[in-house]
Amino acid sequence: MKYLYYITFPVLVATGANAQEFRDPCSTTICAGDGVILPVRRIRDDEITVTATGSRETIEQTGQPVSIVVAGEIAKVQGADITRVLERLPGVTYTRNGPLGSTTGLFVRGANSEQLLVLVDGVRMEDVAAPSGGFDLGTLMTGGIGKIELLRGSNSLAWGSAAIGGVLAVTSDSRKGLRGSVEYGSHDTLVATAGATLGEGQSWVSLNGGYTHSDGISAFAGGTERDGMRQWSVGGTGRVALGEQLALVAAARYADSRIDFDGYAPPTYDFGDTLEYQTTRQASGRSGIEYRGEGLSLDAGLALSDTRRSYFDAAAGPASSFDTVGRSLRADLIGRVDLVDAVQLDFGADSEWTRFETTFDGRQTARLTSGHALIGYRAGQHLNLTAGLRHDDHDRFGGRWSFGADSSYYLGHGWRLRGAWGQGFKAPTLYQLYGYGGNAALKPETSDSFDVGLVKGDRNAPLHLAATLFRRDSRQLISYVSPSGYFNTARARAQGLEVELGARLSPRVTASAAYTYLEATDRGTGRDLARRPRHAVSASLDWETPLADLKLGTDLRLVGDSFDDAANTVRLDSHALATVRASVPIGEKFELFGRIENLTDARYEVAAGYGTYGRSAYAGARLRW
User: Fold this and answer.
1) Paired residues of 204 in beta bridges
2) I need a surface site. Which of 259, 296, 548, 624 has the fewest CB within 10 A?
3) How buried is 588 (Cβ within 10 angstroms: 0-12 exposed, 13-18 middle, 19+ buried)?
4) For 13-171, where are the alpha helices, taking DSSP H only?
5) Mean pLDDT per 10-residue run, the chain (625 residues)?
6) Which run of H or of E encompasses 454?
7) What's 11's DSSP letter?
8) DSSP character for 430?
């Protein structure tokens, strides 16, 4: 008797909800030999990850810690603020310089926010003209997002530079049909989104758009005036089949954002009549070709990311006072091939050309060319092993090798033991090399990351339990030393424990929780790294009431003490935030929803001196056709 747990090499029909199952010649069955016909296990989209190797595989196949959030959970959380979704995951804290839309960074397992690689529809979104080169999550709203994947831990093996802390991959919503929502609430906040997917099967196109406006709160914690924001965005993804095995794919996004902020110098911070604001225009896209053959899959494409920022002081006139331009053009090829029974080879190559310029800095360019290979052994669901290497060649600092390995072993009764080791590196940004305080002699930041965990189910399963120990050592960290400029000065260590719990307590009640204990320290001084709390807890409880299908939910977020500065002299106090949510369907296609955030009106800071929201209420409606 032969057994089949899942089909390893599916034909990808589409992304999002259009790719919810693997198809075989028998459609819903497969011939397993010896005259036995076995049912095919349908693999949900929330069980499939691309962040582990760059190719699609199930969560069970990887030994790396990956969390997946799909459109249903994003809608349940409500609102435009993506940090409210991400803070539900273990190992995550964030910092924000004021109201919604302000500069926002995500710390994953204590790594610097710019050490997290952010992908939107497969496009790397680093701003190479920013001092740190990271992506500002304040410019990314939840509207139009269909899936979020977060890999925690260094993974430069598959993704190259900037993946010291992990990889955050965002995929646009491509569920079939029409969809839209509108929400209004505190601080004159309006959020509107719309989307549509046309076509089916192997050829389709999906469009998404959104508009967010808010009068906001004062960016300065002691201020009384409001610093508002607005953003509009539009994007699309699509696939055109050229046959059963070949297809053209494309994705594009454009976002235009504006955020007001408080100026200098204290104690006035230019309140009242003087208006200072920043605009950010982001354009990104990728087009390529996919091949899905028997035992071989290939993806090749060309991607562009362009970020332009302008800073204005209304008192000085309508012209901007400072502009930056950061652009990245990237050609890539990723493939997977069956070598022998149960052995796969994942491989890839890419070349990236980046450039930056500012009002005061002339244009500079850089080129990074890379190649990687991973050998994987897949013995059904019982044992999965992956190991590989990568070589990167940068025209400024030369070549570098990276290595990594991970494994997942099925213990029985739904339990898996997983472990991973990976190396990470982050090349100096063009700004750090040639901008204000630039140092052309900088070396890449590097890291070694280890974790081991025991897991039952995934976070979207009826029962999910996980405990993971982790550690990451980072070297050659780049710091700005005033007034001299940028230097490789620091070493850091981040280690701790992540615990996840999730369960369907009854047919109508579900609960989940995530706890992180983190020790993130500067190994040179022994002090805590700034804005890295030792303890963070997120918990949620949802109840589907029997009354008109009314759904009620509550979220609780507790964050421990931390320091705001490297000297550990400015303390950020611990805080607890509670949110209550409700939604009710009106027919099959319409839904009303609402929530109250910061229910107890707690006073807190995630960055010293910057304002945060008090008690706030919002309500809206959602349509799905």
Assistant:
1) 199, 239
2) 548
3) exposed
4) 71-77, 83-86, 156-159
5) 28 33 31 38 67 79 90 94 96 94 94 92 90 89 94 87 90 93 97 94 94 94 88 96 94 96 55 72 97 93 96 78 93 94 93 92 92 90 90 87 93 93 88 87 90 92 95 91 84 96 95 97 92 96 92 97 93 97 94 97 94 96 93
6) strand 445-456
7) P
8) H
